[in-house]
Amino acid sequence: MLNLFKSLKFWEICFIALSIILITPLFIEFLFLTIAPLAAVGIISSVLAFKKRKFAIIIINTLILIGSLALYIFLW
Question: Is the separation of the CB atoms in 65 and 19 below 8 Å?
């Protein structure tokens, strides 16, 4: 179980699942509050990606976070 939490694939799947869930209409009103947990999961996966020298994952995570914030500002 400990190896699962150190796995980059696990954190990336969690990040993508959270991204999809939080952009649904149910959570869109509270998107500004839900960006913090999404950012926390994104930071964990970005640190693991940095250790493995996978910089594309870091860029994609950052763009998803910025896109979520931009979507919130656009819909506000």
Answer: no
Residue pLDDT, tens place only, 26-59: 777 777 777 888 888 888 888 888 998 989 989 9
Does residue 46 contact residue 11 with C-beta atoms inside 8 Å? no
The whole-model pTM stands at 0.76
Pull the structure tokens for residue 7.
Answer: 């796995």
- What are the C-alpha distances in Å from 2 to residues 7, 9, 10, 39, 41? 9, 14, 12, 22, 17
Mark residue 53 as left, alpha or beta (left: phi above 0; alpha: psi -120 to 50; beta: remaining): left
Burial of 56: CB neighbours in 10 Å, binned 0-12, 13-18, 19+: exposed
